[in-house]
Amino acid sequence: MRAWLWDRPPHTPVLFKISDLLAGPIFAFPEVPWVDHTFEKMGTLNMNLEIHTNEKEVTEKEVTLHLLPGEQLLCEASTVLKYVQEDSCQRGIYGKLVCTDFKIAFLGDDDSALDNDETQFKNKVIGENDITLHCVDQIYGVFDEKKKTLFGQLKKYPEKLIIHCKDLRVFHFCLRYTKEEEVKRIVSGIIHHTQAPKLLKRLFLFSYAAAAQNHAATDPRNHTVMFDTLKDWCWELERTKGSVKYKAVSVNEGYKVCERLPAYFVVPTPLPEEDLSRFQGHGIPLWCWSCHNGCALLKMSALPKKEQDDGLSQMQKSFLDGIYKTIHRPPYEIVKTEDLSSNFLSLQDIQTAYSKFKQLFLIDNSTEFWDTDIKWFSLLESSSWLDIIRRCLKKAIEITECLEAQNVNVLLLEENASDLCCLVSSLVQVMMDPHCRTRIGFQSLVQKEWIMGGHSFLDRCNHLRQSDKEEVPVFLLFLDCVWQLVHQHPPAFDFTETYLTVLSDSLYIPIFSTFFFNSPHQKDNVGRESQDTQSKPLNLLTVWDWSVQFEPKAQMLLKNPLYVEKPKLDKGQRKGMRFKGPQGRGGRFSSWFSLFPASWTRTALSSGTAWPEHQRQLSLPLTQSKSSPKRGFFREETDHLIKNLLGKRISKLINSSDELHDNLREFYDSWHSKPTDYHGLLLPHIEGPEIKVWAQRYLRWIPEAQILGGGRAATVSKLLEMMEEVERLQEKIDARPHGQGALLAEAPLLLRGSARLSALFPFALLQRHPSKPVLPTSGWKALGDEEDLAKREDEFVDLGDV
Amino acid sequence: MWWGGRGQSFNIAPQKEEPEMGHSGPKCVQRTGMLEPRSQQLDGHVASGCLPGEQILAWAPGVRKGLEPELPGTLICTNLRVTFQPCGWQRSQETPLSSEYDFALVNIGRLEAVSGLSRVQLLRPGSPLKFIPEEILIHGRDFRLLRVAFEAGGLEPQAFQVTMAIVQARAQNSQVQQYAGIPLSKAGQNTGSRKPPVPLLETSEDWEAERKKQGARGWRVSTINERFDIATSLPRYFWVPKRTLDSEVRRAFGHFHQGRGPRLSWHHPGGSDLLRCGGFYTASDPNKEDIRAVESMLQAGHSDVVLVDTVDELPSLADVQLAHLRLRALCLPDSPAAEEKWLSALEGTRWLDYVRSCLRKASDISVLVTSRVRSVVLQERGDRDFNGLLSSLVQLLSVPEARTLLGFQSLVQREWVAAGHPFLTRLGVTGASEEAPVFLLFLDCVWQLLQQFPAEFEFSEFFLLALHDSARVPDTLTFLRDTPWERGKQGGQFNSYTQIYNPGYCQPPAGNSVNSQLSVWDWDLRYNSEQILQFHNPGYDPEHCPDSWLPRQQPSFMVPGPPSSVWLFSRGALTPLNQLCPWRDNPSLLAVSSRWLPRAAISSESLADQEWGLPSHWGACPLPPGLLLPGYLGPQIRLWRRCYLRGRPEVQKGLSAPTISGLQDELSHLQELLRKWTPRISPEDHSKKRDPNTILSQSR
């Protein structure tokens, strides 16, 4: 019977009886023998009772520190106790705390427990107890039970160190049993290396790149378009059929015109080249993306404001007039300017909201968690992070409506066109362009809009610790917006929420160049500088090479099994599709669904469109949208009611009620009243109940938030099982005429075979499985004797071996 | 004359005797002269759906709006319901009621008529409607919304008539205290081929079978309440400890509120029991023997007993009602809450808070019963509301069988229907003041579990939704009576009392009438076979099913502790009690009220932080397989959007659940193809997949 359940890992965890080791006032441990039970495998009952009192065994045990190429050990401290938050019972693991120029690492003595095959979703670069220096958010010290923020030079060293990470992990290290010198060294080392301002040159990125020269260049299968060549831009123009009215220019090669702009970019064809260099690229409409109907999304960084100089502002005005004239003239559509610096979010808003929001998840102990839990919704609301997400999505819908329904070009305007411009334009593209919902497409989009768009990741993530004011999680906000879309329309995306989560984590891993520069110019420049000194081109890794972080097996979790590739135009050729609908399905489905209440049918129908036979084309033909009866729906004179009904709600949604917003409302409602085409336009729901918390990212380190054997992981594992079966059967059917035996489909993913996964899979696996809601056995004076207890434990283990 | 009248009334001939009811549509319409030419439309197929005794009061052609697609059809008001009959839609013979188009009159929460920009709420029949409505909005108390726009922009007099008729009918309906229930007969149904029906627990055989299923060897079925002379709210049969004599039962039960003494709810295979009982009847003056009887029934042979004050930390009935009203107001399509204030408005309803506290308490108790193998007695003063909620939740969490479709239905039947939950009062059908939708709160809790453990339940969200909606449909007696006694009276089970005096009597009285008695579990009354198919959760993973993890093999961890230790579980902590009953020595704390202890000043109310005060000899037992531990944190408790937001214009999207059903469909189709092409197919392929068709044939 299920022999594998009882397999023990090669090394059994070494656990301590904390009550023996600690006697301080903060540790109120009961007198009862301290029992730890760790579930070796989820859902099994294999209990492992280890009570060790022999400290020598611990110190003798050698734990190796895994160093990356170029990584240097800076300081270390031994006999540090790391707390493991496990509901009510706090326990600790002894180990070594290490600070290198790349990370802070804790080398626990029960690391071996993690080596078993459970943790298949393991990051190859960052271990469970590793914190990259850039990932550290705040460091607190506990002095006499008082928590204080640590910074600068310390006069007194804390007995406990609390590290809040940007990926929302919280670490507690007890330094009480560490030698005083080591404490001084490690604490000041950590504080210095994580909080002191840094030079760009001193980023670990470069030492790593220099040391890891032999690393294979890029994965040949990685087709992410990097947009660092003219060819890439031309390709994108071709793909979106924008090449008629727009051209890729190489005027900025070598960053002669402007250091803010990428080496190559796309502008309207008639724009004279000398205009480009006039204001260092300010005031130039840059092409982002072309819609199927020829409308384009453009962005422009505003001209620098100089009020004193009348002549200059006059010049600017006439320059702009000229530009606008060019892009207003046919063949260009009417341009609608969307000024993102005014009447929209400010970076300050985003910063404030996120810092409030993240506090909800940076939990020091479970008491704190439970205290906040009562007011969860109002706290969530008062952070207004979700509202900011809603406003971003709404803005994107507005722009989508202009492009799709009104046939106008949209010009996004922002001071540097590198923050909200990136956010809004990439959101619009994710919603409108199904290509951007594939993994390659999404990565190319990030590359195009964010990396080449000059989003200053270095400042916005505060990687160099130079200014806290500049630290604004704009990119994270974008990922959260995309998550809302992924969550609302899972079959439309090639990637999963796990992908977004690991992407957000990668922001703080300084071996990838992607998120560690303010602009492509900075990257190329730094590269060139170091090239002079070392005479070897630096080989900077891109984050899109996921094999650096994850094994192929783990990478499978980044791929959405439900995603169906776009049907090929050639209907005869169906090999590209993951699964095919049988012929005549449409009829069967429609008759079937008509039997359901409409509210059911909606959901069912939308799933029906997961089949490759889509009712709608990639995007609506222009003529159709005009003549469609649904478009006229609200214009009917008699239909006052809907206006009445919706009026209140939508007017809340949309502040003013002019013609334009009427159109928007109509656009939004009519899209949502139709079945979803996952390969066409995709709009999010933005009503109050629909914007949700990205639980996987924000809650994953909170043991209380785990649901053993529940959550989406359970659904997904079931899904994968069924997918596999479908595939197998299809292969059988395909193989039938040739008389070949059916090939067994490869078992998908790590999900198989695991009996019960936690709701926050895959990250939950990295946690020690909470043995929680079992009533804790403490606080009561023992009535029975301990032997009895031990006996029963043995009894149980024996049972397991049967 | 057409202006002032309330429309023609069609007297439908009662057709109780006709086996193929509803089939012979045109026959049953007796046209009462003077028909307008237009009403020719209202011919056979409209009236065909009428139930026996149902009268059509008014009707008007209209278009249903709000949901896609828009449906032209007819709005009909009868003396039982308001129904929308789409053009060309034929009520199937087998499903005389429609879950989609019917609005029972009791279910109508708010009625609005719209003309142009004016919008009037219609309350009483006295309030005159000053215009001909262009559109009528019927807000259901079950969160549904029916929106019908009348043809010709409201210039139709029929629109006026039907609106007024609805107002009138609703008003009249609310005056009727006792609902007759629609006497349906399903003689045509071939009852033989149906799958094992839900035991209605109206016979002692049902109870005996259920007891055996649970393996409760130390218990027996007591017939002492066969004549309902112990308590009308109790079922005729219940489980008492084997060693307890009926005379002792009678002795003991008299000292409980409303005679609801301790009875077994569920026997855990590990040896512990879950009992429920009403509050101690403090005014009584029991003698020693009485006390001994009470104690022996509460202890039921266990050395340790944990008393749980059910209402402790749970909302009061009034709280539940208030929260539900607020939730309903919030979920109205034109709710006043702004989008960015939605979350705090949701929190303000406190509904999710209550859901959460129910889950938390149930989770604690299930750990006590299963992992710690301790017997638990749930005690609530009335024993008719939260006791049922908690005991059913505990069973759902602990028993994989209870998570099957059949298991869940019998669970509801046992812990709610048979146990005498006052459905009629609590759902506000009678208009009594004690309205509190405890049952709907329970369904929400179950939905949360379903969300959290999508692979552990055989039934789907749609099933819960169907159950939710059925609570207010006046078709069967299941939810239309407050007590088993009333239900039995109506059902004609014990038409002759003489039979009952016969002590050996245990046969179902007049088998004919019992068979024809329909319960809410006869889903085919309201749902067609495709819909019933949707009751099955395609994500249900039978591998987690009971068989492979027989908890029966689990050895008992019970270790005899000090003799007869009694504990009180309250506010997340266990406290030892000196005695079980409040009467023995001096008036103990227990007697003061049902809320025994003053609330302890605990900074954090979380269980996780708190010491449970658990005796150590209870041991740290492993979590039994199959036990679900629900999450009850703020972010984990969600709004049941498919239910509560049904009336909102934006249509709700599902999670991946429908996609699973899509895949399921694909699977069965592929199998079909394979079967067709290859005559022999490996047997494992057959067994593993659940073809919707086979599910269907099972369920019929």
UniProtKB/TrEMBL annotation, chain A:
GO terms under biological process: phosphatidylinositol dephosphorylation
Domain Myotubularin phosphatase stretches: 227-698
Pfam families, A to Z: 3-PAP, Myotub-related
GO cellular component terms given for this protein: membrane; sarcomere; sarcoplasmic reticulum
Record localization: Cytoplasm, Myofibril, Sarcomere; Sarcoplasmic reticulum
Chief place where the protein resides: cytoplasm
Keyword Cytoplasm: yes
Taxonomy, superkingdom: Eukaryota
Summary of the function given for this chain in its UniProt record: Acts as an adapter for the myotubularin-related phosphatases. Regulates phosphatase MTM1 protein stability and possibly its intracellular location. By stabilizing MTM1 protein levels, required for skeletal muscle maintenance but not for myogenesis.
Similarity comment: family membership: Belongs to the protein-tyrosine phosphatase family. Non-receptor class myotubularin subfamily.
Subunit structure: Heterodimer with lipid phosphatase MTM1. Heterodimer with lipid phosphatase MTMR2.
PANTHER family, sorted: MYOTUBULARIN-RELATED, MYOTUBULARIN-RELATED PROTEIN 12
Name of this protein: Myotubularin-related protein 12
Source lineage: Eukaryota, Metazoa, Chordata, Craniata, Vertebrata
Gene field: MTMR12
Automatic annotation (TrEMBL), chain B:
Stored Pfam families: 3-PAP (PF12578), Myotub-related (PF06602)
Biological processes annotated in GO: phosphatidylinositol dephosphorylation
Similarity comment: Belongs to the protein-tyrosine phosphatase family. Non-receptor class myotubularin subfamily.
Bias (Basic and acidic residues): 682-692
Region (Disordered): 1-25, 681-700
Top-rank lineage group of the source organism: Eukaryota
Coiled-coil annotated residue ranges, if any: none
One cellular component term from this protein's GO annotations in UniProt: cytoplasm
PROSITE patterns in the record: PPASE_MYOTUBULARIN
PANTHER family: MYOTUBULARIN-RELATED, MYOTUBULARIN-RELATED PROTEIN 11
Domain Myotubularin phosphatase: 201-644
UniProt name for this protein: Myotubularin-related protein 11 isoform X2
